[in-house]
Design a protein that fits this description.
This protein has 497 residues and is of the alpha/beta class. Helices cover 39% and strands 21% of the residues.
Length: 497
């Protein structure tokens, strides 16, 4: 059977990539075509995404794909991080650059929202984890600051929706990314308009909900001319990158059964959760601050958002600005030589959201909590990684409470699988079998949803069978349980400091 070429465009908060995913009916192979850097730009006291710069990268990558694979390209699809958005005015005029979720405008917005609508009511309508970065609080900040842009806005498009609009001219809000906003009702399957109105936000900007696997249409004529790609479909995958990554988890399970595995989509963020047949919205879920996000195939991703390798990425960036650029290999070796389980941080503490100096923020937290601060680069990295692994353990225990049973296996997917230290630390801290891989899970899930849209794959279960057949994984077993048990007790004590 001739291979079909699906093109996932995977945009992360730190980099983006175009891949050619070749599917022969049995196996999927990936080829990276184009990669580029991404990150927020600070201007005028705000942190922006360079939307038009990203758009130029998308066009460049599509031209490179055309040159390499020509007429074999069947479809393309874009996924990105969640919560961020752009606004269109009358005549579909783009109203400024999207602002990054790490911008300080949402400081204090949770409290401002709760003064208008009680926390319990917001959760009852949305089932979402409370984080100040959520779209709801970004819009509330705009409203309270009398934003002229919000006043003029006619349409809200999440980041992947923006790129699909630029590609096709079709406006819509893909479901998995819409569920990250905290104004989507996962039980009713639509916007929580009553919540929007109670916060005095304009419901006119909320568009039609699009399901994963929807064919959006062909490229606009000018885009087809600029890239050389004609008669190519644009498909909405699970546009939230975690939704696509979870589709590529190489797990086998019975539909509707209680899950005995969980996933960690590991990258700048660590997203840890289970796949459920329906939302879990109850007092326990609220108390544990978990989230219900839309998944592919009508599933719900019951999960916790955890600050991930951002901690390490920012340390490396700060050291580079100071004049020393360390390779990842050097930092791994230095962390391996540092004293184990010496000091810990709470990775989700607000001080680590966007500090100007991450290594100093880590040291300051350790000193503030009565610990010996890590003295060198290796100790800082080890502190960050071990703290992540211990937070995974706490999250695992909470997941088991919510689903009412034991989780046997942790599947780690995404770029973080390449950090073998963190994978082993996760097995040690959680005292569970860890299966790591595939690395490019988000792009794989994106491509497989394109295959579903093309009727080349019939189900999510079949897609996961293809993943198991096509990509190798690595297993990690528990080591040194006693030391990690004692470390976890010290880690938990930090919550009360």
């Amino acid at each position: 059977m001739p291979s079909t070429c699906f093109v996932p465009i995977d945009l992360g908060a730190s980099s983006g990539r175009h891949l050619a995913a070749m599917f022969d009916g049995k196996r999927l192979t990936l080829e990276e075509i184009y990669r580029f850097e991404n990150g927020p730009t600070t201007a005028g006291g705000r942190m922006y995404w360079n939307l038009l710069g990203l758009w130029q990268h998308i066009l460049t990558g599509l031209r490179a794909t055309k040159a390499k694979h020509g007429e074999r390209v069947a479809s393309i699809a874009v996924d990105t991080w969640g919560v961020d958005f752009g606004l269109l005015g009358k005549g579909d005029e783009l109203l400024g650059n999207p602002i990054c979720y790490r911008d300080s405008r949402t400081d204090g917005m949770l409290e401002r929202a709760f003064s208008r609508v009680p926390r319990e009511e917001i959760f009852a309508q949305t089932g979402l984890q409370f984080m100040q970065i959520n779209t709801l609080y970004q819009l509330l900040a705009m409203k309270l600051q009398n934003s002229a842009i919000l006043e003029m806005a006619e349409s809200l498009l999440m980041m992947p929706d923006l790129f699909h609009w630029l590609l096709t001219g079709v406006k819509g809000n893909e479901m998995t990314d819409a569920t990250t906003t905290q104004f989507f009702n996962p039980v009713q399957g639509g916007w929580a308009t009553e919540l929007f109105e109670r916060l005095s936000l304009p419901t006119r900007i909320l568009g039609n909900i699009i399901q994963p696997g929807t064919k959006l249409g062909p490229l606009l004529p000018q885009v087809a001319a600029a890239t050389g790609l004609a008669k190519v479909q644009v498909v909405a995958p699970g546009t939230h990158d975690t939704a696509s990554a979870v589709m590529a988890v190489p797990a086998a399970s019975q539909p509707g059964a209680r899950p005995d595995w969980c996933y960690i989509s590991s990258g700048t963020w660590s997203i840890m959760g289970v796949e459920m047949p329906r939302p879990v919205i109850n007092e326990k879920c609220l108390a544990l601050n978990f989230t219900n996000e839309g998944g592919v195939g009508g599933t719900t991703r019951l999960l916790k958002n955890i600050v991930g390798l951002w901690l390490v990425q920012e340390c490396r960036r700060v050291w580079s600005l100071a004049g020393t650029t360390y390779s990842w290999e050097h930092l791994t070796q230095a962390a391996g030589s540092a004293k184990p389980l010496a000091a810990f941080i709470r990775p989700n503490d607000p001080t680590f959201l966007a500090p100007p100096d991450m290594p100093e923020a880590i040291r300051a937290f350790c000193q503030r909590t009565g610990q010996t601060a890590p003295a060198d680069e290796g100790a800082v990295i080890r502190c960050a990684l071990e703290s992540l692994a211990l937070l995974y353990r706490g999250t695992l225990e909470s997941l088991e409470q919510l689903i009412g049973g034991r989780i046997e296996t942790i599947h780690i997917v995404g770029g973080g699988t390449q950090n073998r230290q963190l994978c082993q630390m996760t097995a040690d801290a959680c005292q569970r079998r860890v299966v790591a891989g595939p690395v490019e899970a988000t792009a794989i899930g994106n491509a497989l949803m394109q295959a579903v849209a093309a009727s080349e794959i019939g189900s999510i279960a079949q897609a996961r069978e293809i993943v198991r057949r096509s990509f190798q994984v690595e297993e990690y077993q528990l080591q040194n349980a006693a030391a990690w048990k004692e470390a976890y007790e010290r880690f938990l004590a930090l919550r009360e400091t």
